[in-house]
Amino acid sequence: METTDIEQLRKHAAQLEKDIAHLVRHDQLTGLMNRSAFVSDVDRIISATDYSQTKGAMIEIGIRGIPRISGSLGRHVADYVISALAARLNRMREPETLCCRLDYWSFAIFIPKINDPLEALTTAKSFIETLNKPVDWVDRHLKVELGAGVALTTEGQKDALELLENVSLALKSATEKNGPGYSFFNPALAQISKRKSDVMQALHDPSDKQLFKLHYQPFFNAKSGDLVGFEALMRMDHTELGSISPAEFIPVAEESGDITRLGAWALAEACREAANWPNHLIVAVNISPEQFYSGTLLTDVHNALELSSFPAYRLELEITESTMLKDSEMVMSQLNALRDMGCAIVLDDFGTGYSSLSYMWKFPFSKLKIDRSFILALDDTHLVRGMLRSIIDLSRNLGLKITAEGIEKPEHVALLREYSCDYLQGYLTGRPASATDIAAIILKNYASQLREQPYPAVADPKFRSNKQST
Ligand code: C2E
Ligand code: MG
Ligand code: MG
């Protein structure tokens, strides 16, 4: 072989080696550094820097809207948008700043030295502003939404992975709140996340560690004061975490998918319990949006009624507006089927979400529950009173009944009676209580009804059995 050929081969091998080294360290789509190269470079900088004297900043930029673009225009267009954003990011970074493609729709940036936290925030903001400009594709301007999480190095900074965990929590918090789109990491976020994963774990613990039960809160006819029924409210007790509020564990169960199982249990348990009550009393069960999407809700309701021989007309299903936001056609068809079975559908927490008037007439509701926050605001301004009166009038015209929840003061009772609200529920009239404890409420109410109506038509056998059990 000629010396020139050997030279050529050597050059070729060196080039190949370079190409392989580049491939190993870079993301093929965007040409940015990949996650593992980024992590090892940041680790190297961290171990060579005294972060008690100076600070570095990690930023994670999350690109929302990519699944939308991918779903409507195809994965190749989504890829094109991501590469265009990566190119912008690469152009605007300082030479010492490291950038990588962290996963399909997020980038990470590490600035080894910053002057103060404000500089980190300003840098994150300017990245977002530049990346936020639409990406031109054929004759369209494609828009994405961006969020950023920012975390600073600390004295004794462990490694890049710790910083990446922190920015990811900060990004999540930025995405959840309707703020400026970026958020700083603070240790409370880590605590919240830890608590959430503890609760998620607890949902799966064996039954000797956690216990689910239902409590029942009474609601009354506003005019006559008669007991109308009870809302079933789930409770969770855990040997290590103690008693956990549904406001905390229900959203976690919704996220983990456990709500389908728990919701089916709540339906069955509430119907089983309510079958022991006098037969004019109603039981209301809260239903999460995920139960509609799971596809088992109709069967769960049917089974709950069948197993306890409980009549559907005594079962109310409470849903919130968020249920109708996603795939409203599919939700509507299930609501119609549930109504056809004989159940009443209640719109819960009215006044907290969009309070869209169209929901009130498009969906088969028979009752609307005005949220506690609305009742609390009654004391503040006359405007709220006017709004409340209008909501009650409007609902009446649409043939809907109204419950006011969160009644804590006698003056609220007087006002709501004056406005012809149908039902009242709140701590003033009765706190949620165990199935055993509500027997006393049922008895008391029945006794006062007997006093007012000396000749009740029929003595209810179910009521007698309830009486015996207390
Ligand atoms: P919700 O359905 O709006 O239930 C009313 C909540 O307000 C209950 O809180 C009740 O205890 C509370 N409450 C009632 N009257 C008053 C009052 O006068 N003052 C105050 N401060 N609070 C009052 P709870 O039991 O903590 O439940 C919170 C939420 O958790 C419920 O709101 C419901 O959205 C959800 N939830 C509870 N049980 C279930 C369930 O079995 N399934 C589903 N999907 N969600 C449930
Ligand atoms: Mg409710
Ligand atoms: Mg409510």
Task: Tell me what the structure shows.
The chain has two domains: 170 residues, Alpha-Beta Plaits (2-Layer Sandwich), CATH 3.30.70; 261 residues, EAL domain (TIM Barrel, Alpha-Beta Barrel). With 470 residues, the chain is an alpha/beta fold. It is 51% helix and 21% strand. The chain is elongated. The chain contains 19 helices and 16 strands. α3 crosses α4, α9 runs parallel beside α11 and α11 packs parallel to α13. The strands form three sheets. Strands 8-9-11-12-13-14-15-16 form an eight-stranded mixed β-barrel, surrounded by four helices. Strands 2-3-1-6-7 form a five-stranded mixed β-sheet, sandwiched between helices. The structure holds ligand C2E and magnesium ion (2 copies). One magnesium ion binds next to loops.
Give the gist of this structure:
Helix content is 51%, strand content 21%. The protein has 470 residues and is an alpha/beta fold.
Q: Please tell me the overall pLDDT.
A: 90
CATH homologous group name of the largest domain: EAL domain
Bound molecules: ligand C2E, magnesium ion
Main structural class: alpha/beta
Rough shape?
elongated
Helicity, as a percent range: 40-55%
| Unreliable stretches | 454-470
Number of strands: 16
Radius of gyration: 30 Å
User: End-to-end span in angstroms?
Assistant: 103 Å
**Strand percentage:** 15-25%
Summary tags:
single chain; 470 residues; alpha/beta; Alpha-Beta Plaits; TIM Barrel; 5-stranded mixed beta sheet; 19 helices; 16 strands; 51% helix; disordered C terminus; binds ligand C2E; binds magnesium ion
